[in-house]
Amino acid sequence: MFAELEKINARPEPFEFYTASDLWTDEHTSKQMLSFHLNEEIDVSSRKVEFINRSVEWIASRFNIGRDTKIADFGCGPGLYATRLAKSGANVTGIDFSERSIEYAKEVACREQLNIRYVTQNYLEFETEDRFDLVLMIMCDFCALSPTQRKGILRKFHSILKPSGYVLLDVYSLSAFEQREESSTYERNLLNGFWSPNKYYGFLNTFKYIDEKVVLDKYTIVEAERTRCVYNWLQYFAPEELKKSFMEANFKVDSLYSDVAGESYDQNTGEFAIVATKA
């Protein structure tokens, strides 16, 4: 038992493990995540509906979205942005590896006869011959990627954009990093049964990596038949660091905002957004 507890509480190296699929493709947890997406009153998988509506209105204006605009939405979930942007006339491609979310999004697009192509795939592996006017990665998905994955996804964005195309994504700030603290908690059926329909015991270890500006929420789920770990990594950024990443990937940084609804940049906000174009 002592050895098991030592393993549960062990601190891994930053981004040592990648378990995103365990969250988004598991039959039980994907159902929970979809319910969070569709709850318009909470900021969990998606932001509140009021913010999404305001964000889409700003995106449509900022990037002059029209009938011929081609948009790629990385991590589209159940299509909350894709649906609204398609209603503005855009031709949208949504990529997500939650089959449950994509099926929901497809049903909406079919019912409302929207010009959206949905792809069920890990967006790190997405390839296409299409070229886009705008690439979106919203809800700080970029922060969940390792340094190597971030470099790869920026190369991908660069390759699939038209010469005048833009990227819009948001990240967590150093101000938010300062608010995070290390902790260890244990609870029967942690998060009210989120992790399994069966009885389980859940351990949550939050590790903070000061030098790397990374936080890990490490979930260890102990069921009668199995024990598993899910690693939720989050990178926090200074504006200069994010700009450097984009410039190294041959992008030109256009502007910073406090969010993807176009609020003026404020260094004290917990998140910020960047707009960049191909250099």
Question: How would you explain this protein's 3D organization?
Answer:
The structure is a single chain. The protein is α/β, with parallel strands linked by helices and 279 residues long. The chain has helices at 2-8, 20-24, 27-38, 49-62, 80-87, 99-112, 147-160, 174-179, 190-193, 239-248; strands at 70-74, 91-96, 116-120, 132-137, 161-173, 183-188, 200-209, 214-223, 227-237, 251-257, 271-278. Strands 1, 2, 3, 4, 5, 6, 7, 8, 9, 10 and 11 form an 11-stranded mixed β-sheet that branches. Helix 4 (49-62) packs across helix 5 (80-87). The radius of gyration is 19 Å and the shape is globular. The N and C termini lie far apart (56 Å). The mean pLDDT is 95.
